[in-house]
Amino acid sequence: MIQTLTHFFLEQATYGQVYLATFVYFLGLYFVVGAVFLAVCKWLQTKGWVSQIVPNTTPNKNIGFEIKHSIKSIFVFGFSGIAIVYLIRMGIIKLLPDTFLNVLMGVFFLTLWNEVYFYIIHRIMHFPFFYRRVHKIHHQSKIPTIYSVYSFHWLEALLLSGVPITICPVFNFSAMAIFLYPLASILLNFAGHCNYRFGHGTGASWQLFGTRHSQHHFRNTQNYGFATHFFDWLMSSNKKNNSL
């Protein structure tokens, strides 16, 4: 069934159908996967395995702001599906077979590329011109929540949706890897914005992911990376003190 749907959307579906499918897919990632992720975080907290970074409840009006702008971003993300399908149909993007290894490695390398791509775009977004006019929307969430993951200005949403488009014409991936990459991406986004962390601000680097990004939201500076702090370390833009 999955192969049949893939064949339909890559070869037969209208671009309107491709857009609608992409839009619904990102809506599902945002609302359905997000709700499950938050429920798991709360359950892990009852077990003492995670703790809140900032133990304050975000006002409902702020969550409403985040949802409103996230839906606008998802509207923009829908066009990325059209772009990818168009490039596939034109033969500019060539697909690998959907073997387990191709899917696994494809998601891994797309996520790895996102580390590079995101750091560059995010660093640009913090130039004063772009911060005041574009990125400031995302930083309205001083204490981030799962609902802030897509809370962007439309231009930032457009730029951030370019991860697969900027690498798939150069390196070949399977269709399923491209399809699953947004799921891997949003899970990492939830981990960085959910206001929960393993430990209490100490421990291995992977345990500090949520802490680093919460610091970034709160201070509007440093820790520009996504899931890792490699490029922050490389560019000396990492904050070593793990307290807010």
Q: Can you tell me the residue ranges where pLDDT is under 50 for at least 5 consecutive residues?
A: none
Largest sheet: 2 strands, antiparallel
Helical proportion, percent range:
55-70%
Number of helices, where a helix is a run of at least 4 consecutive DSSP H or I residues: 10
Mean pLDDT: 87
Number of domains: 1
Topology:
Blueprint: H1 2-12, H2 15-46, E1 50-52, H3 60-89, E2 95-96, H4 100-125, H5 128-133, H6 154-160, H7 163-167, E3 173-174, H8 175-193, E4 196-198, H9 209-219, H10 230-234
Parallel strand pairs: 2-3
Antiparallel strand pairs: 1-4
Description:
The chain is mainly alpha-helical and 244 residues long. The chain has ten helices and four strands. The termini are far apart. The strands form two sheets. The protein has a two-stranded antiparallel ribbon. Helix 2 (15-46) crosses helix 3 (60-89). It has one domain (2-188). It has helices spanning 2-12, 15-46, 60-89, 100-125, 128-133, 154-160, 163-167, 175-193, 209-219, 230-234; strands at 50-52, 95-96, 173-174, 196-198. It is globular and about 50 Å long.
Descriptors:
about 240 residues; two-stranded antiparallel ribbon; mainly alpha; 4 strands; about 60% helix; globular
